Amino acid sequence: MLSSIEVAEPALAPAPPSEGLRVKIVADRAASVRLREVRQFQIAGCLERAEVLARDRYEGPMDQRDEVERRLLAQIDAAAVLGMRVPDILAFWEGNDPDPEVAWCTAFLLASWDEPGARPALSTWLQSLREAPFSAWLAATDALSASSHPELFDMLAESRTSSSSILRATAIDVLSQRQISPKGAGIPIPGTDPYLMLAALRAATRSPDIAPQPLLDAPFLVATDPDILREEARTRLILGDLRPVTNLHARVDDMPESAASLAVENLALAGDESLVGAAQALIARLPTSEALIEALGRFGVPELLHGALRALEEPELAATAWEALVTAFGAQVPETEPDPHGAWKKVLARFAERGGRHRGGLPWSPEAAVAEARRPEHSVRARRVRLDEIAARTGSRLAGDPARWGALGQDVWRNLPRGLRRD
Fold this sequence. Notes:
- By secondary structure, the protein is mainly alpha-helical.
- Among the domains are: 165 residues; 71 residues, no CATH class.
- It is built from 22 helices and two strands.
- A two-stranded antiparallel ribbon has the order 1-2.
- The chain starts with 34 loop residues before the first helix and ends in a 13-residue tail after the last helix.
- The N terminus is likely disordered.
C-alpha cells in the first residue's frame, strides 16, 4: 500500500539582493504559472519514467529485476510526494496509447493508492478496457496481482458476482494468480464472452481444483484481436487440448499471415516433429521477424533454423537470431567469434546429423527445458513462454508466474512437477 512519505525540506540558497538585478520583471507582462500545474508536469514525468521501467520489468533480464522494481517504486513515491491524485492517474492513461505498460502502471496505481475513490475509479476504468486492446486487460490483471491493498481484495470479492462480465473475469483471473481458490460463483459456465472464457481457462491452467474439460468442450472463440486468439490457444494447449496444433495440416494453405504466425508459436509450445513439414510451409509464407525466429529457436529443430543463420547478418535481427540458436543448441559459439554465420552453420550441421529437437544443446526433455529456462538473462516474457511449454508437455499446471512482484516472481521453480525441481 502506498502511503505518504515525509521528506526533509532541502536547504535553499539565500535570495539574491533585490537591487541591481540584471532582468527586471514587469508584473503585467510576466506569465504566471500555478504551483499545481508545475506539480502536474512533474507527476507526469514520474509516471512516464514508471512506464519505461514497467516495460523493462517485463523485457529486461530477470537478474536485474530487483533493481528495476526498486526504481519503479521510487518514481511512484516521488509522484506521491508531489501530491498525485486519482485524476492524475486517469490523465496518464488517457494521455497515452493503451499499451500494456501504460495499462500496468494505471492498474497498479489505482489498486494501491490510499485515497478515497481509488477503488471505485479502478472498477470504472477496468470496465472501460473493453474499448482497448485485449493486451491492456492482461497487463492490468498482472498489475492487480502485485498489489496488496486490502480494499482491492474486498473489491475483487464483490466483483465475482458483478453484473459486469469484465469485472467478474478480472476477479477470477487475479484471485487465481494469487492462488486463491475460486469457489462458488468463481468459474462461469463457458460462453462467448472472451474475458470470462479466457479468465476461466487461465485459472484452470493454475489450479488443479478446476476441472478443465467443460471449458475445453466450449466452442473456440470468434475474435479478431490476435491477443485473444493467442491466449486461447496457449491456455488450451497447456490444458491438453492439442487442436491448435493438430489442425495445422488442414489449414496451412489458406491461413492468413497473422494466423500463420500464431501457428508457429503454437508449434513451439506443444508441437512435435511430425509437424515439421507444416512448419516449413508456414515459414515460407511469413516474413522473417523476431517473434518467428524466437519461436523456432524454442522448437529446436535444426531444419527450421536456417533462417536464423541468415538473420545473423541482418543488424536488426542478429541479436534475436543469436539468442534463438543458443536456446536450441547452447552457447556453442563465443560472442567474440569473427565469423558467427560460419561458426553457427557448422553447429547447425552437427545437430542436424543427430536429428530430433534440441534445447540448450541437449535432446529436448523437460529437464533440459527447465535448465535452459533458468538462465538469469531471460526476461519475464521469455520465462513465461518456457514455463508454458513445460506445463503443456508434462501435463501439469503452471508452476508459477515470473511476472509476480519481487521474490514471488523469481522463485517459480519449487512448484514444478516432482522430478523437474532443481532446488
